[in-house]
Amino acid sequence: MDGDTPVNTGVGAWPDVDLAWVSVRRMQLKLHRWASEDSARRFDDLFNLVYDPAFLVHAWERVAGNVGARTAGVDGVTVAQIDTRIGVRVFLDQVRDSLKSGEYRPSPVRQVKIPKGGGKFRSLGIPTVADRVVQAACKAVLEPIFEADFLPCSYGFRPNRRAQDAIAEIHHFTSRPISYHWVLEADIAACFDEIDHVAVMDRVRRRISDKRLCALVKAFLKAGILTEFGDRDQRLTGTPQGGILSPLLANIALSALDEHFTQQWHTEMGDPNQRRRRIRNGLGNWRLIRYADDFVLLVSGDRHHAEALRGQVSAVLAPLGLRLASEKTSVVHIDEGFDFLGFHIRRMRKRGTEQYHVYTTPSRKSVQNVRDMVRRKTYRSTLHEDLDGLLVSLNRSLRGWANYFRHGVSKATFSAVDHHAWQRVAGWIRRKHRITSRRQLRDQFCDRGWRFAHNGVVFTGAASVAVTRYRYRGANIPTPWTLTAPSG
């Protein structure tokens, strides 16, 4: 991939979806293998992969299958309109021609505000469908390369990794016999809004020497935002949340944090004897666990060791144009507990014993969020719906919420959430059907006992999801491209 070596998938005409997937995967395997074999290698001549037919077809499938496919960017065009009005192949021909000719320019993203909780709102940027496709193609090219460099302590927005892996690692390090009991829980202030473009591009160029691809990535960073009031906001920092490429770019920048603390771990704390010696000398040990812009540092030692890490974190973030959110950054003991990724993590005495264990449960905020969701679905304005439709909607939402938390100590919480949902549904039925007695409610709308059922649909709720233990996978989480790549 250095110099003038041409790279392509070998696909000339527009392939079908399956052939495109095979071609893209074959190329990604090569890219990942080359990047893994030489950490100093810089990749050139990648831009032609972005407009390669296989990569564009694969990118279109990713965009069309996304939940945001029905949402339009600043041009007002949706995936469905492209499919019915001009056809997918014609659309992809236009995108490919504009990329090859150098005429392609990203459009500003359309800004929307979504509720964040506590009366606050989060800004999302919605790119046009064309920009989404190009971003997806860029990601398909860049991700296998940078995944070779990303470190095991990072879990957010990475293939084959999830929030439960980060929670399992925290549980592993805070439990006996390791017992890291002090926690610096941290949050980066407005990470996606304030991240420095120069810092991001500098880290991208460590691996990518293709000037056209780097210019394309930079163009997405500089595309700007069209606000809800129709004003153009040309920002010098940030990468809009909602863009397909944004999480990867954020991870590329924030890997500076991973590298800093991982290097410390390997050089000063990697050996058990080193860690014991540091504790005897009053130095302490620590371990970083990061999920996108949320992270914790687990500390073995005293509170002042955790407090001192704030300065290290701030020093690493400053060149990236980032800073810690002081109101969301604090030092706590594991016995006090802390919230991370929707879970509450705390060491407590096991009932009936003198033994202490670390427990992970849904946080109060997460429980309140799901209760609010149930309240919205059973409000007076939904009385025009049928009961079976309401039950289907509630079951789907509660099951999805419970699946996220099923690896924690969540059984009692699931039952409490279901009880709240039952009360809300009962009130909804009484208002809709003017029912006053509990007997009438049970006889008309319950199939056995007090379980709601209507037209063959029964209320199953969160408790239908079994609570299971999550297996801690440590640093041995494979990427999608760790298989042996074909030669060539």
Task: Describe the protein.
The protein is an alpha+beta fold. 47% of the residues lie in helices and 13% in strands. It contains 17 helices and 13 strands. A 4-stranded mixed sheet has the order 2-1-4-5, with no helix packed on it. Helix 1 runs parallel beside helix 6, helix 9 crosses helix 11 and helix 14 runs parallel beside helix 16. The radius of gyration is 25 Å and the shape is globular. The N and C termini lie close together (11 Å). The C terminus is likely disordered.
Overall strand count: 13
- What is the terminal separation in angstroms? 11 Å
Beta percentage is: 5-15%
Number of helices: 17
Q: What's the Cα radius of gyration?
A: 25 Å
Query: For the residues shown, what is the average pLDDT?
Result: 93
Order of helices and strands: HHHHHEEHHEHHHEEHHEEHEEEEHHHHEE
Structural class: alpha+beta
Given as residue ranges, the uncertain stretches (5+ residues, pLDDT < 50) are 484-488
Main beta sheet: strand number and arrangement? 4 strands, mixed
Describe the secondary-structure layout.
Layout (H helix, E strand, L loop, with lengths): L16 H21 L9 H4 L2 H12 L14 H8 L1 H14 L7 E9 L2 E7 L2 H19 L15 H12 L7 E6 L3 H4 L2 H9 L5 H12 L2 E2 L5 E2 L12 H24 L2 H9 L4 E7 L2 E7 L2 H15 L12 E4 L4 E3 L2 E7 L6 E7 L1 H14 L9 H19 L5 H23 L4 H8 L7 E2 L2 E2 L30
Parallel strand pairs: 1-4
Antiparallel strand pairs: 1-2, 3-7, 3-8, 4-5, 6-7, 9-10, 10-11, 12-13
